[in-house]
Hints:
The protein is mostly beta strands. The chain has two domains: 111 residues, Beta Barrel (Thrombin, subunit H), CATH 2.40.10; 89 residues, Thrombin, subunit H, CATH 2.40.10.10. The chain has a seven-stranded antiparallel sheet, covered by helices on one side. Strands 3-4-5-8-7-6 form a six-stranded antiparallel beta barrel. This is Putative trypsin-like serine protease. Pfam families: Trypsin.
Amino acid sequence: MTKFILSIITVLSVYVLGESAQIPSDTRILGGQDAAIGEAPYQVSLRDNFGHFCGGSIIGDIFVLTAAHCLDGYTVSQITVMAGVNKYNEKGDEYKVINMFVREDFDYVKLKNDIAILEIAEGFKFNDLVKPIKLPSQNTAVGTDVILTGWGKMENGKNPETLQIVHLETIDQEECVSALEEINTVLPGEICTYVDVGIGSCQGDSGGPLVANGELIGIVSWGKPCAVGKPDVFTRVYYYREWIKRIT
């Protein structure tokens, strides 16, 4: 199996040291392995006319949580939510999007408040392959074992056939701030992971879920591509719980 590298990319363009912080367009998982069918039933694929472009997570009967930067330039009519799939661009349960809620203070350049909610027209048909995931009941401690899933590009530049899964660990916020200060500012509403060089996220996983103990704690947001020894940054879901509850 082709070796995966996990390192986060986001939607502006690739980071270059010494230049202003910019976010690449999508993110991939590296250092991971094939996920079993039904292993991440909360994971959805956001698709346009060209196929998969971002990930998302089912958080209720009609709601999907994703990254705000994923939705830039889109209208609701251009996005389809595909649930219950394990293969890249596989046909699954398809849902029409009727509403898009992007955090009012989202900053696309700095990826501040990088969170959004999609509302679908009809409720998800829950089964073994399609299930919602709980929001976090408390803030996530440093050193927590977490799981990241997605269809982001692999080391060879191609998207994987099968959903990828990788195990990571959350790190101290100050450590993350220091490691990424030359790239972008890490904010309180973000959470970071790091394990080793060659393990992280890269293009295609943006908006996807970071999970700990069966709860959705993070949303793939930004980082320095790809798996080069820098932390990956996720929107911290606990920080935005009240905003999520107001909408859902």
